[in-house]
Specification:
Blueprint lengths: L4 E6 L3 H12 L4 E7 L2 H11 L3 E5 L8 H11 L4 E6 L5 H8 L4 E4 L4 H9 L2
Parallel strand pairs: 1-2, 1-3, 3-4, 4-5
Length: 122
């Protein structure tokens, strides 16, 4: 058996986090290793949960820009893959500034096929 992909969910909406976790819980090759609702808690938990992939809400609260948050995460875990989750109405500037640092960008509402493809891609 291969190792499971360790996924960390960072979103300030408990409803959105629970939805993502429910979508992924049935996947044999994915393990949810943690969740956080703010930029600060996301950063603080990285060493503890040691994820392979972070699903990161682009508008997560916490007083830090998304670009700075992604760079901080990469400083702690240089090889982690960060998948940025964006709303349809999120600004182009936000997406352009973050896409240099993110491994992938997916749009809400989530399509499970696209979500799994993004998580599993190397």
């Amino acid at each position: 058996m291969t190792d499971k992909l360790r996924v960390f969910v960072a979103d300030d909406s408990p409803v959105a986090r629970n939805m993502l976790i429910r979508m992924l819980n049935d996947e044999d090759d994915i393990e949810i290793v943690g969740e956080a609702g703010t930029t600060q808690s996301s950063i603080m938990m990285l060493d503890e949960v040691n994820p392979d992939v972070i699903l990161l809400e682009a508008a997560i609260s916490g007083g830090m820009s998304i670009t700075r948050l992604i760079r901080s995460m990469k400083d702690i875990k240089p090889y982690v893959r960060i998948i940025l989750c964006v709303e349809v109405n999120d600004g182009v500037e936000l997406i352009k500034s973050a896409e240099l640092w993110a491994s992938d960008i997916i749009r809400k509402p989530y399509n499970k096929t696209n979500l799994l493809r993004a998580i599993r891609s190397a």
